[in-house]
Structure formats: structure tokens, C-alpha cells
Amino acid sequence: MDLCHVPATREKGWYLALMAPNVKGPNYAWLDPSRLYCHPQGLQDCVADLLQPFRGDAIDTVAGIDAMGFILGAAAAATLRKGFLAIRKAGHLCVQTVAQPYSDYSGREKVMEVRTDAISPGLRILLVDQWVETGGTMRAAIELVERLGGVVAVLSPLCVPTGVAAICIESSEGGKWIRERYKCSHCVPPRLQPRFDQHQ
What we know:
By secondary structure, the protein is α/β, with parallel strands linked by helices. The chain has helices at about 35-40, 40-50, 70-80, 135-145, 175-180, 195; strands spanning about 20, 30, 60-65, 85-90, 95-105, 110-115, 125-130, 165-170, 185.
């Protein structure tokens, strides 16, 4: 792995080639982005591409989803000079929380939770995760934020434009549901989207 090489021409998504394919079978995600995070320029460009659609938007807080969403979410928060809120898998927070059940990309039933004192009514939140495959995890995070009065902007001229960011938002039923309702950002160029949707 060459962590020093940077292409002479850096088109949006060039860093996607740094990701490694799954070699462990169907219980794992089909790609591992962690090598992308090890590449200094790759990580910087990935975060810049995720944040580009939100430039000039009023964002109060960045929230990342347990666990890999913590990496991109914290990097985005640092870039924006905003606070970072961790949305956790259930059982890790020792304070008052609200919980939301969901099914992840593998079909496993899980529960996520967030502390009740971190989101006040009207707080404008950018939700970040590593990947949106079936949309179940992101949708549960959206429901938690909105139950506490936070704003993850819907596609409406009346709404404050914060939203959802992930390396890839697949064109699954759940991914489409999120794209149709929320301002979204991802890193996959349109010409590559079909390959990512088909996990190739």
C-alpha cells in the first residue's frame, strides 16, 4: 500500500480505488474503506467532496454513526469547526438516551441510541456514515435526530439545508428513500454508481 502516491490529476472519487474488496465472505461489507482513511490526501479529498454540496449551509453539529461513521464524521466536524455527536449502538452510553431499532445491511436487527441532551429543537445536523447500502441504519439515525427536534433537511425550499453524507449511497429502495427526502452528498461519480450498486 503506497500512502505517499497522489495522482497528478485528482478527479472526484479518485480515492475510491484505495478501498479493498471483501475477502472474508457474506457476513462482511463488500468493500473496506479503511485503507482510504490511511492515505492523507485521499482522506482530505474524500471529506472535501462530501462537504462541497453543503458549503455555505448553516450546520450546527456533525453527527456520525457507530462505528465507521465516526471517522468521516469527526473529520468533517474538524474541517467545519463544529462539534461532533456520536450516534451509538445500544448499550455504550452511561447517560439518558433515546433508542431506535433498525435492520442493518446484513439484515441483522439492532438498536442505536443517542444522548438526549445533545440535540435541542431546531439544531441543524449533518449526518455522516461510511456507507448507505439498504438505508436502514441511516434512516434510524434520522428518526432519532428528528424525534429530539433536530433538523436533517428535507428537499424543500422552506427547510434549512443540512443533510446526509456518505462515501456511497446505493440506489437501493432505502437509498432512494433517503435521496428523495434529504439533501445528500456522496463520493461516487455517476458513471461508477451502477458498479457500486451491483457490488462490483
